[in-house]
Description:
Largest sheet: 3 strands, antiparallel
Helix content: 40-55%
Radius of gyration: 20 Å
Structural class: alpha+beta
Distance between the termini: 25 Å
Amino acid sequence: MTRSDLVSELASKFSQLTHTDAESAVKTLLDAMSEALIKGHRIELRGFGTFTINRRAPRMGRNPRSGESVSIPEKRVPHFKPGKALREAVDQEVHKNKS
């Protein structure tokens, strides 16, 4: 599902929302989540999952083309851990499709 698919789905489920309003709502939500992660906060959506920031320590890597050592700096990367309800829902769908 893409961002535009999400906007279309939201606009179709809530008839009082115009497509522009749905687009604004999705943009506002994603911007707020991005800002929280940039500040280092944890985002928890009960039943869906949590978004956190993981720190990757600096390390020495290797350029695959030349073989020379390359210093890779420290990074902060977003991480998503699905909640129990989401994991179970996905797992049930997998088992339903196998039957």
